[in-house]
Design brief:
The complex is a heterodimer.
Chain A (H helix, E strand, L loop, with lengths): L1 H5 L7 E11 L5 H10 L12 E9 L3 E10 L9 H5 L4 E7 L3 H17 L5 E7 L11 H11 L2 E4 L8 H11 L33
Parallel strand pairs in A: 1-3, 1-4, 4-5, 5-6
Antiparallel strand pairs in A: 2-3
Chain B lengths: L5 E2 L2 H7 L6 E14 L8 E12 L2 E8 L6 H5 L5 E4 L5 E3 L9 H6 L58 E4 L3 E6 L8 E6 L8 E3 L4 H11 L2 E3 L6 E4 L6 H9 L13 H10 L1 H9 L12 H4 L6 H8 L1 H7 L4 E3 L11 E3 L16 H6 L10 H11 L3 H11 L9 H23 L3 H5 L2 H14 L15 H16 L9 H12 L2 H15 L8 H17 L1 H9 L9 H5 L8 H12 L7 H17 L6 H10 L6 H17 L6 H6 L5
Antiparallel strand pairs in B: 1-6, 2-3, 2-10, 3-4, 4-7, 5-6, 8-9, 8-12, 9-10, 11-12, 13-14
Helix pairs in contact in B: 5-6, 5-9, 6-7, 9-10, 12-23, 14-17, 14-19, 16-17, 17-18, 17-19, 18-19, 20-21, 20-24, 24-26
GO biological process, one term (chain A): protein transport
Catalytic activity (chain A): GTP + H2O = GDP + phosphate + H(+)
Family (chain A): Belongs to the small GTPase superfamily. Rab family.
């Protein structure tokens, strides 16, 4: 497939589609990050996710339109055994913890380990320390999480779905890091010249970063 | 059976080709490539080779050999580094390598057929999976998770896998499907799927010739366009064992393998040897027995979709009644096999809904001491129309088993007192745990933490729960904590707060709400099992019902890797709580608490919902993702009354032909009692 694409590399703009999964302890803000990223909204009392939810969002890099297929999962340990259904085949994952809760950071580490062991070998993993707006209740050091991410080759940002801090940025950073020449290994499709077609569902703030 | 990628060891291929004189090469095509995707690094390998069709005696072989120059050095040195996977007629050798060259678009249309979904599982984990993004691999975990994706990839695929030798030589007849790539995706390629479900390396025609190849194949073996896959031809079997094999695949004989004379293959052979006598003696024994061919434990691991299995049996009957409902059973007493019949479903009616139970009717059903007379009549009214909101607070206590129908008012008074004491006793148990104690009591701490997280985000848009200092939030919390003490083995699981919230709002009182919640949990607590057994069972039962009632829809779900029915998970886990408005949820729940018209009526509600959405869900582009998204997005837009009418219509349709229903269907709907 890679070779197939190589023959066709002249395309100016192309659309790559990536599957991204959100994992993390319950109530750390997985759904809120997605909601902020996809719809620009925040609900203080976002209801718990039962089963899984699916959303899409598109971001534009220089010459590439990256479409994320986002799987948002239930966080409670009881539903852990369902997670592999969602991270299988994912090219990217955001593992989320809550900076005000040390346990959620520990849980995030076990998710990272599981992904490293069981998910696609080339999966791009980002660690998100969410609820950064609650810095006065901080229990997880920024440095500690940054060092852990460094050691494990993860993208890392502290985010706040509430204030929108670093939410688009973390998705964009993932989009940048994903291999575009192999992009869409999930769904090979003919490359499209975006000058001739509207990028699907682009949102403000996402497509303007570059 | 493992859906593995087949690899033919060169040595064995050469052995098989030993007698070169008998070989006539009927077709030869250079520039046919195998793409080897190495998940461990970015270094994709493409191996060029030659594809040929060879006549060797009576055999018709399809062979592909790499050009020697293309083989990586390590592979040439290590060409036997493969393991024997199975011993079919050819020398079949395999490695644990995933063929990822076909890409997801293709693989998503092509389920690995012999998935073991539905096989009884002893593994508490639903699935332990890993994936390199593709489904055509051997699977070690099929049986661990009957709900897993149709094609669960193998775990632990090692990134450092060496490039294998893809050379193969197979008889054309061993191939079942030849699947062509979609147009416009670059080089055309074909996926060859074997009769046992394995696949050969995907062949990419870099220098065209794909169509010509397919034409030549058609001259050598009987083929037909596949009814199962798009752009696929199926190679039909023409050998004398085919009939026996087809009977075997029908798997009509359940678990009874003891009686050798019952073996379907034996019958088929007999039929071939002496067709007239065998057929007539068989027909003379025709009775109206039904075999439970829908027993998922036995039939689901079979790869063939229902319509195919049935069509092997009886083309006409299949068309007449729908493939999933053909029934066959052997006659145990006479030692013969024999009889074919079908359960024909009659037309589906649209039952009327009624008025909700009102105060007057309710009071008329009480005797002077307050006992409820004719509870069955009351339930019937509730089933047909629900309950007027003002009455819910009282009637729910009976429906949920908190009060007995035959209790007098005096009895209720003292009973309530006992229940109140019992509740506060349990509440005190967790309330009296000190912070210091809690530090060394992780089980309590964890439950408390989970409950706090969920209470703050349960139905907060309802007036009843809005605001931060709302007493209802505290009640929600305390009832759930007390339930943890009541049912410590289960503990708190996400979803429970959704089940309690409407009950608390209706009952308003803490103790009453608690005991009614206990009543509801008694019905649904297995939804929250640690090993997910309750959910698995329900999804399995739902699967049986869909297969029986709507085989076409079922086949679509199978094709779209959605046969795990995972998109119904939320519906079942919290009994449609998130799908309907608060008001409708109350009606739906009280209807289902009547236990009418049958056990598992909620599964018929699922069927009704799916039936309504079927057109959209069966769009060709609607895959696993789209199905889940569509189902999730139905929330808030479902017509409850229409759904209940349809669900009851389905029930009446089934019960009308009760005698002809498979045992599993009857078991699920409680029609065996």
């Amino acid at each position: 497939m890679a070779a197939q694409r190589a023959t066709n590399n002249a395309a100016q703009g192309k659309i790559c589609q990536f599957k991204l999964v959100l994992l993390g302890e319950s109530a750390v803000g997985k759904s809120s990050l997605v909601l902020r990223f996809v719809k620009g909204q925040f609900h203080e009392y976002q209801e718990s996710t039962i089963g899984a939810a699916f959303l899409t969002q598109t971001v534009c890099l220089q010459d590439t339109t990256v479409k994320f297929e986002i799987w948002d999962t239930a966080g409670q340990e009881r539903y852990h055994s369902l997670a592999p259904m969602y991270y299988r085949g994912a090219q990217a994952a955001i593992v989320v913890y809550d900076i005000t809760n040390q346990d959620t950071f520990a849980r995030a580490k076990t998710w990272v380990r599981e992904l490293q062991r069981q998910a696609s070998p080339n999966i791009v993993i980002a660690l998100a320390g969410n609820k950064a707006d609650l810095a006065n209740k901080r229990m997880v050091d920024h440095e500690e999480a940054a060092a852990y991410s460094e050691e494990n080759g993860l993208l890392f940002m502290e985010t706040s779905a509430k204030t929108a801090m670093h939410v688009n940025e973390i998705f964009l950073a993932i989009a940048e890091k994903l291999p575009k020449n192999e992009g869409g290994t999930n769904r090979p499709r003919p490359e499209v010249d975006i000058t001739q077609s509207n990028p699907p569902g682009g949102s403000k703030g996402c497509c303007s970063s570059h | 059976m493992e859906a593995s990628v087949y690899l033919w060891d060169r040595q064995l291929v050469e052995n098989a080709q030993g007698n070169q004189e008998d070989r006539i090469v009927a077709f030869k095509k250079d520039g046919v490539f195998v793409h080897f995707y190495n998940p461990g690094n970015d270094d994709d390998k493409i191996i060029g080779g030659t594809l040929s069709i060879v006549e060797e005696g009576h055999k018709r072989l399809l062979e592909w050999k790499p050009n020697e120059a293309n083989l990586p050095a390590d592979e040439i040195d290590n060409e036997h580094d493969t393991q024997v996977l199975s011993g079919s007629s050819s020398a079949v050798v395999g490695t644990e390598v995933q063929d990822c060259s076909t890409g997801q678009e293709i693989s998503s249309e092509m389920r690995c057929p012999p998935s073991n979904e539905g096989k009884e599982s002893s593994d508490p984990e639903w699935t332990v999976v890993n994936d390199s993004g593709h489904s055509k691999s051997n699977s070690v975990d099929h049986e661990s998770f009957e709900l897993a994706m149709d094609a669960v990839p193998s775990s632990q695929s090692s990134p450092e896998t060496t490039v294998p030798n893809y050379a193969f030589s197979v008889q054309l007849q061993e191939i079942r499907y030849i699947k062509r790539s979609n147009k416009g995706l670059g080089w055309p390629y074909i996926v060859l799927e074997m009769r046992d479900g394995g696949t050969l390396p995907t062949l990419h025609f870099h220098h065209k010739g794909c169509k010509k190849f397919l034409k030549i194949v058609e001259t050598y073996v009987p083929t037909a366009p596949s009814t199962k896959y798009p752009r696929t031809i199926e190679i039909l079997q023409d050998n004398p064992n085919a009939l026996a094999q087809s009977f075997d695949e029908l798997n009509l004989f359940g678990a009874d393998t003891s009686g050798q004379h019952h073996h379907p293959g034996a019958f088929a052979k007999k039929l071939i040897q002496d067709p007239v006598t065998t057929a007539f003696s068989g027909f003379s024994k025709v009775t109206n027995f039904l075999q439970d061919m829908l027993n998922p434990a036995e039939t689901m691991p079979q790869s063939r979709p229902m319509h195919e299995r049935a069509s092997v049996m009886n083309e006409d009957a299949t068309e007449a009644v729908g493939a999933g409902r053909i029934q066959i059973k052997q006659d145990d007493s006479s030692g013969g096999f024999e009889l074919i019949t079908c359960a024909q479903l009659g037309p589906r009616c649209d039952p009327l809904r009624g008025q909700p139970l009102d105060v007057e009717t309710w009071n008329n059903h009480k005797d002077e001491e307050g006992r409820i007379i004719d509870p069955d009549g009351i339930k019937e009214i509730i089933f047909r129309g629900g309950i007027e909101p003002v009455l819910r607070k009282e009637v729910w206590k009976y429906l949920l088993g908190y009060f007995e129908w035959n209790m007098t008012q005096a009895e209720i008074k003292s009973y309530k007192k006992d229940k109140e004491d019992d509740y506060y006793r349990m509440k005190l148990q967790w309330k009296s745990i000190s912070a210091d104690q809690e530090n060394r009591f992780s089980a309590i701490r964890d439950n408390k933490c989970l409950i706090e997280k969920d209470v703050t985000r349960t139905d907060r848009t309802r007036i009843f729960y809005e605001g931060n200092e709302n007493i209802s939030l505290k009640l929600l919390n305390d009832i759930l904590m007390t339930y943890v003490m009541y049912n410590f083995d289960l503990g708190y699981v996400q979803g429970m707060s959704d089940l309690l919230s409407p009950i608390l709002e209706v009952l308003a009182g803490e103790v009453d709400a608690f005991w009614c919640f206990v009543g509801f949990m008694n019905i649904v607590q297995h939804n929250f099992d640690v090993n997910q057994m309750g959910m698995k069972t329900q999804l399995k039962n739902l699967r049986v019902l869909i297969q029986f009632l709507d085989p076409k829809f079922w086949d679509h779900l199978v094709d779209k890797e959605s046969s795990n029915l995972y998109f119904c998970f939320r519906w079942l886990l919290i009994r449609f709580k998130r799908e309907f408005s608060f008001e409708d949820v109350q009606t739906l729940w009280e209807v289902s608490w009547t236990g009418l018209p049958c056990p598992n009526f909620h599964l018929l509600i699922c069927l009704a919902l799916l039936d309504t959405e079927k057109q959209k869900l069966m769009q060709p582009e609607c895959g696993f993702t789209e199905i889940l998204k569509h189902v999730n997005d139905l929330s808030g837009s479902i017509d409850l009354e229409a759904t209940l009418r349809k669900a009851e219509g389905l029930y009446l349709q089934l019960v009308t032909c009760k005698r002809d229903l498979p045992e599993t269907v009857k078991d699920i709907l409680g029609l065996n009692k």
